[in-house]
Amino acid sequence: MAAAAPTVGWIGTGRMGYQLALRLLNAGYDVAAWNRTRAKCEPLAEHGAKVVDAPADLADRDIVFIMVSADKDLEAVVSGPGGLLANGGAPKIVVDSSTVSTDASARIRAVVEDAGAQFVAAPVSGNPKVIASGKLTVAASGPREAFDAVAPLLGAWGRGVTYVGEGEVARLVKIAHNVFLGVVIQSLAEITVLAERGGVSRAAFLQFLNESVLGSAFSRYKTPALVNLDFHPTFTSVLLRKDLQLGLAAGKELGVPMPLAAATDMLIAQLIGAGHVEEDFATLVLEQARRSGYAIEAENVPVDDGLAPEEA
Q1: Measuring CA to CA, which residue among 220, 239, 223 is closest to residue 279?
Q2: Angstrom distances, CA of residue 234 to CA of 172, 208, 219, 221, 280
Q3: 170 or 310: which carries more pLDDT confidence?
Q4: In sequence order, what are the beta bridge partners of 31?
Q5: Were both Cys, which of 15, 23, 66, 100 would link to 11 (CB 3.0–4.6 Å)?
Q6: Closest by alpha carbon to 297, among 205, 224, 234, 229?
Q7: 162-192 burial by CB neighbour count: b if 16+ within 10 A, else e?
Q8: Angle at 236 between CA 231 and CA 238, to 5 degrees
């Protein structure tokens, strides 16, 4: 890495943010970090990060990344009391990798630009295990020169960074991605239960599917959840429904009918109503089995999820 590498600020060290900040530290970048719950941020200090007391303390960094949960959180850490821009300073570039609405992203872009900085929307596709396997992907939008400046840092996160255009279009790309995620997992639950009810083990059916032309990295890494009912959360049903709602709103605004997404949204709402709010969204298979008249059981067999960590 060149001696003139930019200094980095990081806001939001939850499950995803922590792992992405760690990859930048491991790539040799100078990182200072903040999180609302300081204890979630402090382990980064063991890897060389400086932990600060408020987002405003990161305003002197060259590039500041943000990874928070919702629109209101993004607005709070950028323009709220103690926020990144609260004391009149600003980094050169702000990169937001949260999954937020296009409206919120546009509002924050305007605030950041008014402060004299550039703003890049860079939502990601993946989870902490995907990050560890080096398979995270990123869609980015904003000024091309700003993207070119941050592209090497985004490239440290995984295997693919795609510049998709100006403004907030990366938000639409991420929302469309997550709508597809919801439709696919519901369909996968349906056909897996169908095969099981016909006498085929879930492990055998999914092995066949994963080795066919319809198999994918997604179907493979969800196989342990569907076979062994391992619902350790990678993405909860509540978060998935939030993104489906954003997708349906975008479809209404742009005049694009989305009947499959609407049906999936209803089924996920039922899943949440059944109490599956903290587990992984693959719990859809439980509801599909219930509607099919049987109590699904874990098969307890070894399954490869295709996400072996990168070799050091």
Answers
A1: 239
A2: 21, 24, 14, 11, 6
A3: 170
A4: 8
A5: 66
A6: 229
A7: ebbeebbbbbbbbbbbbbebbbebbebbbeb
A8: 140
How many of the other CB atoms lie within 10 Å of CB of 212?
9
User: In terms of Cα–Cα distance, which of 127, 128, 130, 124 is closest to 306?
Assistant: 130
What the block records as the tokens of 294 is 């049987």
Residue 253 CB coordination number (10 Å): 9
Q: Do domains 8-167 and 172-291 have the same CATH topology?
A: no
Q: What is the sign of the dihedral through the CA atoms of 110, 114, 117 and 118?
A: positive
Count, residues in the chain: 312
Q: What is the pLDDT of residues 40-95, one digit of tens each?
A: 999 999 999 999 999 999 999 999 999 998 899 999 999 999 999 999 999 999 99
Q: How many CB atoms lie within 10 A of CB 196?
A: 21
Residue whose pair of structure tokens reads 């994963």 in the numeric block:
210
Return the structure tokens found at 15.
């499950």
Amino acid at the residue 1 = M
Task: Give me the DSSP letters along 104-116.
Answer: HHHHHHHHHHHTT
CATH assignment of 172-291, given 1.10.3720.10, 1.20.120.160, 1.10.1040.10, 1.10.760.10?
A: 1.10.1040.10
State the amino acid at position 286 in one-letter form.
L
d(CA 191, CA 189): 6
In CATH, what is the architecture of 8-167? 3-Layer(aba) Sandwich (3.40)
Domains of the chain: which residue ranges? 8-167, 172-291
pLDDT at residue 267 tops 60: yes
Q: Whose CA is closest to 19, among 100, 136, 192? A: 136
Q: Helix (H, G, I), strand (E, B), or coil: what is residue 201? A: coil
Residue 311's pLDDT band (cuts 50, 70, 90): low
